[in-house]
Prior knowledge:
Blueprint: H1 2-18, E1 30-31, E2 36-46, H2 48-57, E3 61-62, H3 68-80, E4 87-92, E5 126-129, E6 137-140, E7 146-153, E8 160-161, E9 168-173, H4 181-190, E10 194-195, H5 201-212, E11 222-227, E12 236-237, E13 262-265, E14 273-276, E15 286-292, H6 299-306, E16 362-365, E17 370-373, E18 389-391, E19 405-406, E20 417-418, E21 426-430, E22 437-438, E23 452-455, E24 467-475, E25 483-491, E26 496-500, E27 508-510, E28 512-513
Parallel strand pairs: 4-7, 11-15, 18-21, 19-20, 23-27
Antiparallel strand pairs: 1-2, 2-7, 3-7, 4-5, 5-6, 8-9, 9-15, 10-15, 11-12, 11-13, 13-14, 16-17, 21-26, 22-28, 23-24, 24-25, 25-26
Amino acid sequence: MKLVLIFTLLFFGFTLSATNEQDKCNNGYVNGKTGHCYKVLTDTMRTWNEAKSECEAQGAELASIRSSQEWQFVRELFKQSGVDNHVFLGGSDAQQEGTWLWTDGSPVTFSDWSTSKPVIGTNWNCMVALYDESFRWVDGTCSNTFIALCKKHVTCRDGFVDKYTGTCYNYKVLTERTSSWNDSRALCQKIGGDLAIINSSEEWQFVKDMINAIPYAYKYYLYLGGTDAEQEGKWVWTDGSPVTFSYWQSGKPNPNRKDLNCILAHPSLNWLWQDIGCNSTTFKFSGVCKIPVNKNPWKSLLCMSFRCTSDYLSNTNFPTCDCLSIYNNMPIMPNLPTCANWSTCDYSIYNNMPTSTNLPTCGYCSNHNTRYDLSGPVNSGNIECSEYNTLNEADRGISNPGSKNCDRFGVKWPYGKTSPMWKGASWYRFVGPAGTKLAQSTPGKNHCGTWATGWTTETLPTVAGSTLNIKICFDIGGNKCYYKVAGKITNCGNFFVYYLPDAPGCYLRYCGAN
């Protein structure tokens, strides 16, 4: 009961501290906790075009539905609002029969059509949620008059709102210049963001306007978050999503230069993009950070409590977990669950079905490779104790033979291969077959799935929440500390996390031990 009481306090405490101006929905709109506000127009019946105009007059759109999670929220909103009639949504195939688009021109990718709907070859061109079919969708006549649903973004002061996720972002040009893309990325991560992902021309124009308003001293060549280091010609952003919008300079990216794997915005060419090497021995560049402002306040708490949740939470503002449908009946917040359906997941972190008075002791969210423990005093006040990557490769332990793995981002064969779980300079925790800590004595060369093995002689900090600066050596055989890098270690109560920079070369890797 003590844990349940503490956790209940966490829920209410977290809710209060997360409420701010940017989470507000005004004028009768309801916050969906997804970055959007919703309002059911029940004052009068309207045609589809009238409903669209009324929503736009309120600074909103006739609602688009982007996911099953959003649709579940909206149907619950209909129920709570006492909706007893059909509802116009923002979908239409009036431009081309059979091609359903939302009012902003984007395609309808999620749908909840009723049986045998939509009908092709009719003048039923507007999307209607049918009251007497549990609000399943049909194609209806646009001149009919129904209730309507409006949708708009939450307040986003001085930022840019992603129109699909509703997340508000701020951007920052780094004043510190670095000689590597990874180093600039690490600086962005330190302030809660990452090198900028650009998803649309509107977003890029917003970023360019922001850059142009900065004093010229900071207007230098700028790293962005795109790379094709893993597969030549396949450009992806730091979150793994493909680069769909681009602003390349003519002739770029260069198809004949396979060593140019990172994106740089050029200041004297109206910030056109160039492909450039991810490391430079001659020049230093700045970078643009993209920082989410209205992160969903439930995110870390849900990771800590339920490990993996149902589809109700699997949108971009919630953790994407490594097991599906583990908790199948997520209640409306802030209620706590009374039962759960657990299955065996990676490392069997939690193997027993909890009772109604027991909460799980740990969780694992795979979108951050981050594990959250409640079994000990984790919340030491150090953000790295809850936001870290994991190193869990089976060959990383000190007893394993050597290979050509390298803890350095963007390495390409035949010069080695980037370790599977390596994300660049960041905080890491050793887990599973990799052990629980960085090796504290040299394993010798040709171990840990690499050639030059990384280890430290530093003692572990004994006070929860304390952090020590450490020296990390790489043993190449005959010289136990041929390469040296600076790192950090933090005591998180019942485990340790390490700040590890990119290895200085290949094949170098940090070794795990127990």
